[in-house]
Amino acid sequence: xxxxxxxxxxxxxxxxxxxxLEEDDLQxxxxxxxxxxxxxxxxxxxxxxxxxxxxRYFRGLLLVPERMLFAIRLDGVIVGGAQLIRAPRNNxxxxxxxxxxxxxxxxxxxxxxxxxALLQEVENAARNMGFRVLNADVLQTQTAAIALFNxxxxxIWGRHPFYARVGDELVSGLFLTKCLDxxxxxxxxxxxxxxxxxxxx
Length: 201
Known about the structure:
Helix content: 25-40%
CATH superfamily: Gcn5-related N-acetyltransferase (GNAT)
Radius of gyration: 17 Å
Structural class: alpha+beta
Low-confidence stretches: 1-9
Order of helices and strands: EEHHEEEHEHEEH
Strand content: 35-45%
């Protein structure tokens, strides 16, 4: 399996950028995704998709230039992942921004700090690649993910009242952002936003 240059060790866990997938890794990745879907956390799917669908999804994803796949391993086995999605080439106005999507850790690997480690490494990778703004969005019901983003310094800037439909219920969504650049003009805008937030009742 080919990986990028960014890696983070935390106890017996490691985060890597995935450039290709061998059979064992693909199997572990698909199993972890289906487990996360069953637990209500991921990828927009409401039901587990099975190996064939997920294999096509991930093999196709690796061919898309605007998408970067990251995985976290526990004892060498993939148990979670995340994606960075850059703006298309025609969107030069937002070339400085990158979107974090589909961050998850399988239920059987939680309570070990892996989500925080994965988020930190993906953020570091985005910064090292020159991106200055990291955006994300989550279901308002995903309280653990929201707490994770808050702890990492993300700001909630908006709420979508009709973000998703789960069964017969509409679920709100939250939009978050984090500035990765502490130089002007980002520093002044960041300071202004923080002061504004501190004065909001």
